[in-house]
Amino acid sequence: MIPLPDPSLLSAITHATCEAFRQAEINLPPDVVQALRNAREKETSEIARGELTNILTNLEMAGSLRVPICQDTGVPVIYLTMPPGIPLTTGIYDAIAEGVREATREIPLRPNVVDPLTRENTGDNTGVGMPAIHVRPGDRFTITVLPKGAGAENMSRITMMLPSEREQIHKFVAETMLLAGGRPCPPVILGVGIGSTFDGAAALAKEALLEPIDTMTPYEEQILAAVNTLGIGPMGLGGSTTALAVKVKTGGCHTASLPVAVNVQCWACRRATVEVPY
């Protein structure tokens, strides 16, 4: 018989979830803030520099006032890392959902989650399949949140390429951003998933957004350069900084297929991790 988690552990999970959202919604990670500052220094367009200054001012005000960075506080995407010995039960899922409800009330978060067909709002950012929880093993018990706004998420794409088309991946990524234009509030961060399966590529693309953006591989730099030649610029008003970074995650795939997904993230690349004591 699988033992049930201790009630104190469930309470700690709820608290950690709420705290992770508080951190993510109010303060951007240092690597993202520094990338925005670097972009402002390098920009040659006066309008683009002005928009980047507005973004940085917004970040300062959100931090000092302890309010969310953006009015679209996103939908709750959560990565749960569990060490050996802790059983994965429905109680843990329920505790995380309660943490989302607490965050919605206390931070507060805009209630974004609706039924896909009736469009009825649940009012607390939970519902069928929400929060979206991804579980993986690890040495530490942590909760990582990745609040995902609709403006950027709506611009994401996936394609099933032929293996012979792998040299066209950078063109697909750049085309995705060209179609998006200013709608995802650039400068963006692009998560790219290559390989796995149809759904697996999308998962890889989203997970790539959890990676720090202060370093990139030569392949990621190549794709970034292609995207930044588009000239869309901050908020779509022109400039040399359409994307701050490109992060790629890969997975093994069928010999006859090459899934590629692009998950678009706006400049507010919100993510935070909180450890759960146990």
Report on the architecture of this protein.
The protein is α/β, with parallel strands linked by helices. The protein has two domains: 99 residues; 148 residues, no CATH class. Helices cover 39% and strands 18% of the residues. The chain has eight helices and eight strands. The strands form two sheets. It has a four-stranded mixed beta sheet with strand order 2-1-3-8. The model has no long low-confidence stretch (mean pLDDT 96).
Distance between the termini: 21 Å
* Helix/strand order: HHHEHEEHEHEHHEEE
Number of strands: 8
Q: So what's the overall shape?
A: globular
Keywords:
single chain, 278 residues, alpha/beta, four-stranded mixed β-sheet, 8 helices, globular
Provide a short characterization of the protein structure.
The protein has 278 residues and is an alpha/beta fold.
Topology:
Layout: H1 7-26, H2 30-42, H3 46-65, E1 77-82, H4 90-106, E2 132-137, E3 142-145, H5 150-153, E4 157-161, H6 169-180, E5 188-195, H7 198-208, H8 218-228, E6 243-251, E7 258-265, E8 272-275
Parallel strand pairs: 1-2, 5-6
Antiparallel strand pairs: 1-3, 3-8, 4-7, 5-7
Helix pairs in contact: 1-4, 2-3, 6-8
